[in-house]
Amino acid sequence: MGTRGRPAKYRYVHHDPRISQFSPRGKAGRPDEVYLTVDQYEALYLADFMGLGQKEASVSMHVSQQTFSRILKKAHMMVADGIVSGKIIKIQGGTYVISQREEAKK
User: Fold this and answer.
1) Is the pLDDT of residue 73 over 80?
2) Long-range contacts formed by 75-78: CB under 8 A, 24+ apart
């Protein structure tokens, strides 16, 4: 039986993460992991680092504002879980395309 529902729309990412993992120090043993997708990373970059509004950021990623809001909320939850619980945060996967267009780099 195939997958159900509508296939996920590709998100346009303009900044490939240079670092793919953050690890806590001072926690004995092997900590658990949380996974932040590349499109969630891009949402954090645009909204929190660059300071763009959700409308501008959603246009940059070629998704609706509501979808961008959901991506950002999930990213905030993942990062908070990693920091509060002392988990490794890995950045990988997701449904995305890396865009090379000049208008996106403004």
Assistant:
1) yes
2) 75/36, 75/40, 75/41, 75/43, 75/44, 76/44, 78/34, 78/35, 78/36, 78/40
